[in-house]
Amino acid sequence: MYNILSLVFKYVFIVIIYLFIFSIIKLIYLDIKGIRPISFDNSTYLKLINRKESLPFKIKEYYPLDDNIFLGRGNDNEIVIKDPYISKKHLRIVKDEDDYFLEDLKSANGTYVNGQRVMDVLKLNNGDRITVGQVEFIFVNRG
Amino acid sequence: MLNKGINYRLPRNLLFVFEMMALFLMFMYYRSTLDKSTIIYGLSLIFIVYVSNLILSKIVSGDNYLFLIVTMLASIGIIMIYRINHEQGIKQIIWISIGIVLFFVTYFVVKRFKGWENLFIYYLSASIFLFVATLILGKRFRGAVNWISIGGISFQPTEIIKILAILMIASYYTNYDKFKKKKWGNYYLIGIMYLFVFFLFIQRDLGSVLIFCSLFLALQYIYNENRKLVFANLVVLIFSGLLGFAIFPHVKIRFETWINPWKYIDTIGYQITQSLFAISEGGFFGTGLGLGHPDFIPEVSKDFIFSAICEEMGILAGIGVIMLFMILVYRGFKISINQKNKFFRIAALGISILFGIQSFIIFGGVINMIPLTGITIPFVSYGGSSMLSSFIALGILQVASEELDIEED
């Protein structure tokens, strides 16, 4: 009885060990490509246009967007970018019935969408270029 | 898309299933002599591992894979040890649990306090103190004097000195410019290194000599500006290795057993030949847990655990263990490259090299690829000191995987 069990289990063990290794390698691979595996099915995100290496502060390639997101230099924002040209609370992106709106929170250096300074609130369309400080994002909404 | 559905939950659950199945199998194996405490120990370990992985993926902003990989290695090790020796298995479960607690303690303490790079002299004096203590209080065990026991608790100081040495080298190269200005400043580290190797040689701990030498050399090769010094060092080490071979009989014996273990099959070559038999007995898929004879190998739960894994779980599981170590070391190097803080950069590199070298020496040793020196596989082998120090090192590596130089607003 025990022998049969042990014989079956040894194959299962090997399969599990290799599946484990495979899933870890896969996760690391996703990490290297800069895709965050957790919120992957989120199809709305900000994509960095600048070369990541050209910026002197830490930044990610992708920022997935939720219903309400603050961007700024302060640590209490959802998206924290330590660019000295970005205000502590710089802008806000809100979702309202499938549309995303960008609101500039009276930042010192302003927010530009496709080269135009945002005065109050602006609706974002797929492919819009958002410039904050030295950083440039592209807004992607495939929803 | 292709990548949909893969997230951190998958490896965590795989690990959980693996451990539950192993626990069930062990119940069946020991069903005649089973008592309740074993079940409680086993289940609580599985619970601790699962919860720690869950907590880590939530609170830690750095690397999430390190702890997963390590807990997988520890699980494979504990299954094997438990199957070989019931009592050692229970002890090992306790060691792993303490190790995990120490991992979290190290993580928070190292992260909380600043200025670890300025403690060079403390790392140095602590190491020398431990070496001297070993010489005075040491117990001879398997030819090497590397155990001290205080109040009934015995431990191996070398395991702690390994971590201290890495921190010491890291703080030396962080403050390299300061040291260079002093007279002979460039030679401080080399002097200390030879002192350490000398101490280890008196203890007759050849495995540790090898680990310390490779660790020092690798870090020196990367960070020392004076190339000539590095090569001179290498030449001296090779030369003293040859000298050691000529003078000390116990070095010579190791070498001869390595060249032809079959000649000494009934004496000094017994252990290594049994290990080779065990590995070949297992084949690709192994004999199945509990159906082989790993207990034929002396010291099987410590140095020769890898042979036991190969025998009962198959060479494929053995390759799996090696692959896990490869990912672990790869992650360590990656962390080191991404880290901006120089001290933690060097420390992460040192710890990765330590894990890599240590596992390489013993894997190579038990398959008779390189001369055998008795050291443990980190996280897998039986042994309290080794388990605890490996988890402390992992804690430091975990801190190093995070962004540390964030300027305050």
List keywords for this structure.
heterodimer; A: 143 residues; alpha+beta; 6-stranded antiparallel beta sheet; 1 helix; 11 strands; 22% helix; B: 409 residues; mainly alpha; 2 domains; 3-stranded antiparallel beta sheet; 16 helices; 3 strands; 3% strand
Mean pLDDT of chain A: 82
The beta-strand count of chain B equals 3
Average pLDDT for all residues of chain B: 86
Major pleated sheet of chain B:
3 strands, antiparallel
Beta-strand portion of chain B reads under 5%
SSE succession of chain A: HEEEEEEEEEEE
The end-to-end span of chain A amounts to: 56 Å
> How many helical elements of chain B?
16
Number of domains of chain B: 2
Instruction: Describe the sheet with the most strands of chain A.
Output: 6 strands, antiparallel
Low-confidence stretches of chain B: none
What spatial order of strands do you see in the largest sheet of chain A? 2-1-11-10-7-8
Q: Total number of β-strand segments of chain A?
A: 11
Overall shape of chain A? elongated
Which runs of chain A of at least 5 residues are low in confidence (pLDDT < 50)? none
Number of helices of chain A: 1
Can you characterise this structure?
Chain A is 22% helix and 33% strand. By secondary structure, chain A is α+β, with helices and mostly antiparallel strands. A six-stranded antiparallel β-sheet of chain A has the order 2-1-11-10-7-8, with no helix packed on it. A five-stranded mixed β-sheet of chain A has the order 4-3-5-6-9, with no helix packed on it. The radius of gyration of chain A is 21 Å and the shape is elongated. Chain A starts with a helix and ends with a strand. With 409 residues, chain B is mainly α. Chain B folds into two domains: 1-113 and 248-409, no CATH class; 114-246. Helices cover 70% and strands 3% of the residues of chain B. Chain B has a three-stranded antiparallel β-sheet with strand order 1-2-3, with helices on one face. The longest helix of chain B has 27 residues, at 86-112. The mean pLDDT of chain B is 86.
